[in-house]
Write a structure and sequence with these properties.
The chain has 268 residues and is of the alpha/beta class. Helices cover 32% and strands 18% of the residues. It has two domains: 170 residues, HAD superfamily/HAD-like (Rossmann fold, 3-Layer(aba) Sandwich), CATH 3.40.50.1000; 75 residues, Alpha-Beta Plaits (2-Layer Sandwich), CATH 3.30.70. The longest helix has 15 residues.
């Protein structure tokens, strides 16, 4: 099990390494809500991100479409990775997109899955650019298995796609060897943060974030100090991920972290 960064705050704060922050969106920057379209960033969180991005590299990796997550956050100077890392954009012309060849089969899968979900009360289909998502958060518990069967049936007819499980959602996306973990490693290399003195922190709460946790662990960084595991199913008093992010920000703002650069003075 990957230990929580909350258990090693003092060790992290004493580090001289260069910090880079990678964040999930839903459940990390915003609370989980019944309907994905209602998950909006608070003004205070937006200001926190602006302040952080003025000091260290920040990337937000989300299952949402690139334009969707970028429009909801609306902070310049941040790298945005939509569709679980399949669609990446940042300042200075930074751009990477994978999966365009799979758009026709995704269109077909969307039509088939929509028809199947129409038979399941409160099931919600969401078409993203590089995936098709079936949400079952509001589905009766007895019908949740029917959503999984519907998704699997469509996936079986389209072997070019694979199923990925998130929090109360199943997604069909291109069967490419790419995920949030590979996206994080690519960003570290592209942003010049692949050296041993880089200290990447990833905060997320979804199953899809585990790919990033494991990728950083295999990379050889001190992941026992950095990463936040998926919450246990057992009752816990551990703070929400939004509180975890706020906790780190408070320490950084107090300049307790040597690797946390102060913003340049105005007029310099």
């Amino acid at each position: 099990m990957i230990p929580s960064a909350l258990e090693h705050v003092q060790e992290i704060a004493r580090s001289d390494d260069r910090l880079a922050v990678f964040l999930d969106y839903d459940g990390t920057l915003t609370p989980i809500v019944s309907h994905p379209e209602d998950a909006w960033l608070s003004d205070s969180m937006r200001q926190t991100l602006r302040s952080l991005a003025a000091r260290v590299p920040v990337a937000i990796l989300s299952g949402r479409d690139l334009d969707d997550v970028r429009g909801r956050v609306y902070v310049d100077g941040i790298v945005y990775a939509g569709s679980h890392g399949f669609d990446i954009a940042g300042a200075g012309g930074l751009r990477r997109e994978l999966g365009a060849a799979y758009l026709p089969v995704l269109d077909t899968a969307e039509t088939e899955l929509r028809e199947a979900l129409d038979e399941i009360p409160d099931a919600q289909l969401e078409r993203k650019h590089f995936s098709v998502a079936a949400h079952y958060r509001n589905v009766n518990e007895n019908d949740a298995f029917s959503v999984a069967l519907a998704v699997d049936a469509v996936a079986a007819r389209h072997r070019e796609l694979r199923r990925m499980d998130g929090k109360k959602v199943y997604e069909l996306l291109p069967d490419i060897d790419w995920n949030k973990g590979k996206a994080v490693l690519w960003l570290l290399e592209t942003l010049g943060l692949e050296g041993r003195n880089a200290l990447p922190i990833y905060i997320g709460d979804d199953r899809t974030d585990e790919d990033a946790f494991l990728a950083l662990k295999k990379r050889g960084v001190a992941t026992d100090l950095l990463l936040l595991p998926r919450p246990s199913r057992r009752p816990s008093k551990r703070p929400s991920r939004t509180h975890v992010f706020g906790h780190f920000w408070c320490r950084l703002r107090r300049r307790e972290w040597p690797g946390f650069a102060r913003p340049p003075a105005r007029g310099v």
